Amino acid sequence: MNRYRRRRIVNRVMELIATVAALVAVAVLAIVVLSVAKRGAGAISWDFFTKPQALFGQPGGGIANAIVGTVLLVLMAGAMALPVGVLTAIYLTEFAARRVAVPIQVVIDVLAGLPTIVIGIFVYALLVIGHTQSGLAGAFALAIIMLPLIARATQEVLLLVPSTLREASLALGVRRWRTVLGVILPSSVGGILTGTVLAVARAAGETAPLLFTSSIFANTVQTDVTKPLPNIPVLIFTYSEQPDPALHEQAWAAALVLMAFVLVASLAAKALLARSRRKLVG
Amino acid sequence: MTEGITMTRVIDVAQARKDAKPIEKNDVVFDIQKLTASYGRQPAISDVDLKVYRNVITAVIGPSGCGKSTFIRCLNRMNDLVPGARIDGRILYQGDDLYASGVDPVEVRRRIGMVFQKANPFPKSIYDNVAWGPRVLGMRKDLDGRVEKALRGAALWDEVKDRLKKNALSLSGGQQQRLCIARAIAVEPDVLLLDEPASALDPIATSAIEELMHELKRDYTLVIVTHNMQQAARVADMTAFFSLDVDEGRRTGVLVEYDGTAKIFTNPADKRTEDYVTGRFG
Amino acid sequence: MSAVPTSSPLQARRHRLRGRLGDLALHGLTLAAAFACLVLVGAIVWKILELAGEAFDRFGLAFITGRTWDPVKHVFGALPFIYGTAVTSLVALVLATPLAIAIGLYLSELAPRGVRGIVGSLVELLAAIPSVVLGLWGILVLGPFLAHHVEPWLHSTLGFIPLFGDPQQTGQGLFTAAVILTIMIVPIVASISRELFLGVPRDLEEGALALGATRWEMVRGVILPATRSGVAAAVILGLGRALGEAIAVTQVIGGGTRIGWSLFPPADTLASKIASSYQGAGSGLEISSLMYLAAILLVLGLIANLVAQVIVRRFDPLRGARS
Questions:
Q1: d(CA C269, CA C264)
Q2: Which residues on neighbouring strands pair with residue C75, listed in sequence order?
Q3: Positive or negative, the Cα torsion across B260, B265, B267, B271?
């Protein structure tokens, strides 16, 4: 049965192709991670985390200032993006009529897809021209990137709340705003937290927005947010463009730190998601 | 599931079926020997011995959860798709062991077709729904003729012949189910397995399907699962009654009695059968 | 049914009023937040266009076809960078799409239970790698590898195709950038595809298999057609990502204004030109020209994003009789 055998072979070949494709993806991930780990491990030391960048030409030094700066930037960005993102999501799921909701949804998806360099230029034009670069401007740019991610995640989890819960609360005579703040929001906290953690992981690694807003920094630890804050992504970027192997090693090490952070954040988000799902579905 | 029809009506119907020829003269299509099917460790049906005869409609009846669907899905190896599903015992299809190593489920399913409880036409045109199977299987000669023959065989041709290119999802529920029957017979199987084919349909559509089954049994062997006793009485030549065996808290489906339909409904040998068909339980 | 006892009617009214104020306040606050999003996008578009104004006044639409970028002579044109963006994005799409669909199919149809979750997570992790890290790896690892092993091989076996010209020494060029972009696009498209494939109703799959179709035939006949529009949207989303990527591309693309057939020499995309030239930009006209590039990039990105959204919202073959 010639036709039948041919169909079986085609099926097998396709299965093979799909499996190989998945293997390729995993292999690339492994190669990148191993490269970073191998080349960066050498520079990892206690000094690396506690000392700021070395003076020009001097060996040693670390990325302490960049770590501090990134932490500050991401925290500020989160503080700006979280309320706006959650409130927008609440508006979309609880208040907006369909005709109003769709355009806003479209806009949020547009925001999510904007090239990050365009966002950087925008914030530059808004806040840096006429003044100087600043951590605040950088944080604002990161916040724009985080906003749609948080809004989407919040929306998803708000929609999971069964309408029977809402109806039950309203039927008791409880006001809308109390229902939202007291019943719906608390049960969605897990999902919101997950979305925020993922947004933070994303923001910590973004370079382009900071290139225009917080990229000219000194090699000292800086906490003044009205001045540019040192940060890990721009540091990696700058070092990667230099021909100095010592700087390259530092760049690899910084990349290792960044990737470790992203990995931990992703795992934490997954764990949070699993936990909050269990609580909601039971 | 209207138990408003009294038992005597069912008996009348069963006895009035004069078209039941002496069943044992026909070939055996399925010889099922000590079949036990389990998902994981819990057996769903246990120790089933049964012969299905050619060109005969065999009904499988019984209370919910007694493994009727599991049984029928063993006959075309659809249970292979469920992870953890296993069978013990043998199913001989025309003398060949269906589950022998080296038997390809793909070939099994070509010969043993299935119609599902809820009509599941592909989101394609009516024509493409019926033509897809033959195309894929290599029966490309005179595709138009095949499609027409299948649609006629399913008593649907006159209703759809002018709109073959329309989306199948635009048909009514009963029409969609007949389309699924057409799709199944288009690949020229020997056997048709029907898993509660009319349970989602209104009475008029149901009787159309039942009439169709009388036609179909001329060319095919039919096995139908139904929870509707009256339907079994109207349609089936042979009836198998499954029930639940509760043993130490574990519930397993077992074959209680298998005989000509008239006998099952008028003079059952087993008390459990009698209790079920007279409506005392289930 | 007796009513819930309240205190005096006056108190009840105050209660209701406070409740209603609360509702209004929440409604207003959330509306303001949603409105702020609208304003934000509008402001971004407005600002970019405003910054590009000077260059637009000077060059008009001819900027788009201008081939020269000369800060000294104050002549600027976008064509080399549009070329760079188009080439890298298209090559990345061509490489990434079949790969991503295959991965999506593997994750939804083939992988055994335990493997499914792990590999799925690993693919998502690939998406989470910051672009600057990927770029670093690209400069120091991928680039040299491509330059010493892949490009010479491609040139010697397929060199008759003008795409594969003379290999470069450093590995910095369009090809490396395209490969990096591929690595970025694949996880995005694969994850979305996987969700789409998993979403095809089980009874449709069973219907196909019950007819005696092989797994692949079921995929080709039922799953892929049913998810056609979703996958297309995912691919366009990936395209949008590729278009807008500035950092990783800057790091590996080498820089230049050449337009030619070969994929190997260095070049620039719209995004990478902005990122690399920004610090050193001298005149106001040069900066404004860079902003003009950003405006073009913005328009392209918006088109890709909106097309993807339209596809998702309008054309879903699984949804009822839309024929």
A1: 14
A2: C70
A3: positive
Subunits with 3+ Cβ pairs within 8 Å of C are A, B
Question: Is the pLDDT higher at A60 or at B171?
Answer: B171
> What is the predicted pLDDT for the residue at B16?
58
pTM value is: 0.87
Task: Kindly state whether A3 is in contact with chain B, defined as any CB-CB distance less than 8 angstroms.
Answer: yes
Percentage of chain C surpassing pLDDT 70?
92
The topology (CATH level 3) of A46-281 is: MetI-like fold (1.10.3720)
Q: Tens digit of pLDDT for each residue in A183-230?
A: 888 888 888 999 999 999 999 999 999 999 988 888 888 888 888 999
Q: List, for residues A261-280, the tens digit of each pLDDT value.
A: 999 998 898 888 888 777 76
In one-letter notation, the amino acid at residue A206 is E
By three-state DSSP, how is residue A101 classified? helix
Residues in chain C: 323
Architecture of the domain spanning C62-315:
Orthogonal Bundle (1.10)
Cβ neighbours for C198, distance < 8 A, ≥ 6 positions apart: C108
The alpha-helical segments, DSSP class H, found in chain C are 9-59, 79-105, 113-128, 131-137, 143-145, 151-158, 174-199, 202-210, 215-218, 224-244, 247-253, 270-277, 284-314
pLDDT tier, A1 (very low <50, low <70, confident <90, very high otherwise):
low
Full DSSP string of B206-261: HHHHHHHHHHHTTTSEEEEE-S-HHHHHHH-SEEEEEEEEEETTEEEEEEEEEEEH
Residue B263, chain C, CB below 8 Å: the answer is: no
Q: With cut-offs at 50, 70 and 90, classify the pLDDT of residue A170.
A: confident
Fold adopted by B24-117+190-277 = Rossmann fold (3.40.50)
Tally of helices (H runs) and strands (E runs) in chain A:
12, 0
Please tell me which residue, C186 or A100, carries the higher pLDDT value. C186
Q: Would the CB atoms of C139 and A240 count as touching at under 8 Å?
A: yes
pLDDT exceeds cutoff 80 at C211 = yes
Q: Could you give the CA distance from residue C323 to residue C320 in angstroms, rounded to a whole number? A: 9
Residues whose CB is less than 8 angstroms from the CB of residue A192 and which lie 6 or more positions away in sequence, other chains included: A86, A150, A153, A154, A157
Domain ranges in chain A are 2-43, 46-281
Are B114 and C212 within 8 A, CB to CB? Answer: no
Q: How many CB atoms lie within 10 A of CB A161?
A: 17
Rounded Cα distance between B56 and A225, Å, is 84
Hey, of A237, A252, A258, which one would you mutate to test binding to chain C, going by the most C CBs within 10 A of its CB?
Answer: A237
Segments making up each domain of chain C, as ranges: 1-59, 62-315
Cα(A75)–Cα(A71) distance, rounded to whole angstroms?
6
pLDDT for the residue numbered A54: 73
Low-confidence stretches of chain B (pLDDT < 50) are 1-5, 282
**Strand pairing of B28-39 and B85-93?**
antiparallel
Q: pLDDT band for position C323 (50/70/90)? A: very low
Please state, in angstroms and rounded to a whole number, the distance separating the CA atoms of residues C46 and C49: 5
Q: Return the higher-pLDDT residue of C25 and C180.
A: C180
Strand ranges, E, within chain A: none
- Chain C positions touching chain B (beta carbons under 8 Å): 113, 201, 203-204, 206-214, 217, 221-222, 225-226, 317-318, 320-323
Residue with tokens 């489906």: B253
- Residue in B12, B44, B49 with CA at minimum distance from that of residue B240: B49
Taking a C-beta distance cutoff of 8 angstroms, is the pair C18, A175 a contact?
no
Residue the block writes with tokens 């003079």: B267
Distance, in Å, from the CA atom of A184 to the CA atom of A193, rounded to the nearest integer, reads 14
DSSP C151-216: HHHHHHHHTTSTTS-SPPSS--SHHHHHHHHHHHHHHHHHHHHHHHHHHS-HHHHHHHHHTT--HH
